[in-house]
Design a protein that fits this description.
This protein has 86 residues and is mainly α. The chain has helices at 5-16, 24-32, 36-46, 50-55, 57-76. It is globular and about 45 Å long. The model has no long low-confidence stretch (mean pLDDT 89).
Length: 86
């Protein structure tokens, strides 16, 4: 399955959003036309896509590293024993 126009636009935006003035949320709304929450959902679905990695390997690898760092940080904050505090 190939990437849709929307998927390519999301990856292109993620590659260059930081050079735009204003907040990322404002840029998402004005350039892509959907909320920041929806953008993050769509971007998360692209992270494990082989097509997305072929289209923009640097962005996808950066996003995977960030996801792994966030997972590691959540894991390190858990109480001893790995269970929930009661």
């Amino acid at each position: 399955m190939s990437l849709s126009e929307r998927d390519r636009a999301i990856l292109e935006f993620e590659r260059t959003w930081w050079i735009q003035s204003g907040s990322k949320e404002q840029a998402i709304k004005s350039r892509l036309g959907f909320s920041a929450t929806r953008y993050r959902q769509l971007l998360a679905s692209l992270v494990d896509s082989a097509e997305a990695e072929a289209f923009d390997p640097l962005v996808i690898r950066r996003l995977r590293r960030r996801r792994e760092q966030q997972r590691r940080a959540r894991f390190e904050r858990r109480p001893a024993g790995g269970g929930r505090a009661r």
